Amino acid sequence: MAYTDKQKLIETNVNYTSKDFSTIKADLIEYTKAYFPDTYKDFNETSPGMMLIELSSYVGDVLSYYIDYNYKENLLATATEKRNVRRLSEFLGYKVPNKTPSVVRLKVTTTIDANSDGTPNYGQAPSSIDSGLQIASNVDSQILFETTSEIDFTSSGSGDPAISAPILNSDGEASSYTLTRYVRAVSGQTKTKTFTISSPTKFLELDLGEDNVIEITSCIDGAGQEWYEVDYLGQDLIIEERNIESRGTGGFFSSTVMQSGSLSPAKLAIFRKKPRRFATRINSDMKLELWFGSGTNDTSDELLTLNSTQIANSKYNQAKAKFI
Amino acid sequence: MPILDKRKDRFIEDQDSRVSVGIDFPFNRTAGGNGLFNTTETTIDAIKANIQLLLQTNQGERLFQPNLGVNLRQLLFEQMTEDLQIQIENNIVDVFERWLPFVNLTNINIERRNDVNQTNVNIEFNIRRTPNSLESVQVTFDGVGGTTTTSDGAY
Question: What is the ipTM of this complex?
């Protein structure tokens, strides 16, 4: 059928800008006047008919609010609910940290006796204290802090203070010394949770049931295999931190380099392909859950040694390879 | 000497039985008629329904209309004194002036029946446009709920 100008002039009765109680009520009154002029005439607020009209207006007001609210929560700029902001951020690739604990720089001291010649007797220093040492807050004993690295009194790092001045006895001789170490401690406790998985499941989700998890420190299956946390399940490479010295002569650098002393002890980041991995996310109950992948037959823990040709992008790859 | 207009249907819409004014109260289904609810066909019947609804509504009960209504249900639990009775009458007058300004109250009678835990509120009124008529509405509050009876009379 041919298009006519009359079709263009057809207007709807629905006014989409009427969203609140008063405007919807006014529209309903106008609608009633227009379409039911002989059926209803009493628009006084005390009339039973107006009670129904106002009831409908109230329902419309509430529904309009939720429509607006839903749309508002769809946009990162206007969303206010924590879970929605989190989801929208994750959609954009931003990994939202779950909880940020209190962190303290903990001062740990120990006292060692002096030798007969007045020098400190380092043999009395306690052996290293592993990370995970729990210390209760002096404000609230229910709040615990855990150290994140070991405390070693036997070796002194560059950031550690020197040994204290000797503490003298009544004869004026050195009797003891105080050793001080600083260690980082976070407010929290290390907890272990065990799940029984009867059969392999793709994209397995394990709900920890906790909403205040700071991080997953370790995930080990029944066979003793370690699973690694990645930002996204598609990420199959993880960066391992290795001590150069520990690798010895068979490691990344030739024995000549290591023995020549040209390389000082340091950490080295290496890439390793990890088939056993998981990601974490916050579910709708704001609880942390572990999310595993779809399963793969490739279970090799391949060490990737990158060279410059792999690092270079495709455009300059050829030229760089020739240059080398 | 003026001649009193004693017709029941004094408004234009009241003269046509096919035209309804409002919805009757309490709500009743139309018996095989047109529409869902019974309707009031005269202005005075519509106003009586409005008065019944107004008297049986507590303030704060209507959404978005917190001032609509009279808190008459509290009467059931109050010691009825002369002061309280005057206060209630004043409240009713104030509420009518705000929500039904076209209604002229001529008499308010509050009757307390302690033997059956019941309070009757009888209101006599006329419409300002037709000052020669006299109508009345009685609302009964008891422990179960409000029931209403209406009657009308004319000079």
Answer: 0.85
